[in-house]
Amino acid sequence: MDLYQHVMVLISIILGLSVYHLVYGVAEFIQHPGRYKVSLLHLGWVAWVFLNVITSWWWEFNLNLVPRWNFELYLFVFIFSCMYFFLSVLLFPDDLDEYEGYQDYFLSRRVWFFGFVALTELLDVIDSWIKGDEYLRALGPEYPIRVVANLMFCAMAARTGNLAFQYAFVFLALVQEVFFLARHYSYVGTDLGAPACWSAEGKNPNPAFLQPPSRENIL
Is 78 domain-assigned? Predict the structure, then answer.
């Protein structure tokens, strides 16, 4: 087992636990339909987190192209993956005895939830930067616009409990996530055209701290 596989085992466990928590939470609605009041707002964010988890798991395969791993990179990828688990746990608490239903619970914890969503968006920028400048450019001009818009909406959603705004935000978040997925996440691997940042000449576009050591440095 090489270092990449060693790291991805842990990342896969974390993202797998996120999927488990989300699927198990939704399955409880079927098992006990009358236990808690279901909310479309809550389910919309469940769908958004689920999409992000599976696309993250899918796209992080391209980290096998990183020529050199170090502890800083490992720690970043670990923390990035943990964000999705935090979001999954926030969406499905152990019990709702203190609340009228999932909508009441979600709105009461919106500052924490949207805070983690905003942090995840920022970490995604770093993750994209690690893959290289050409990779960032391949995501198109809509990527920075998408990130800034999400951060702004997260800040507003954390401040207001207005249901019209909350429903509009989750709808727009799901739509843009699906479109972004369809445009950029269809394939992984260099032979299928992704990621575009890895040149045919074999040049490594990664930041300096990911570059393999030179012969002079080794000696």
Answer: yes
Tokens of 161: 């409990």
Nearest to 82 by CA among 153, 172, 11, 143: 11
Residue 210 lies in a domain: no
Q: Are 41 and 90 in contact (CB under 8 A)?
A: no
pTM over cut 0.85: no
Tokens linked to 53 = 């988890």
pLDDT at 98: 87
Number of compact structural domains in the chain: 1
Question: At CA 107, angle to CA 125 and CA 90, rounded to 5?
Answer: 55
55 falls within a domain: yes
Rounded to a whole number of angstroms, the distance between the first and last alpha carbons of the chain is: 27
**Does residue 207 fall inside a structural domain?**
no
Measured distance CA(181)–CA(186) in Å, rounded: 7
pLDDT of residue 187: 54
pLDDT averages per 10-residue partition of the chain, 219 residues: 73 90 92 85 96 82 70 88 94 88 94 96 86 72 89 96 95 89 61 40 45 41
What is the domain extent for residue 162? 3-190
DSSP state of 141: T
Instruction: Quote the CA–CA distance of 37 and 52 in Å, as a whole number.
Output: 25
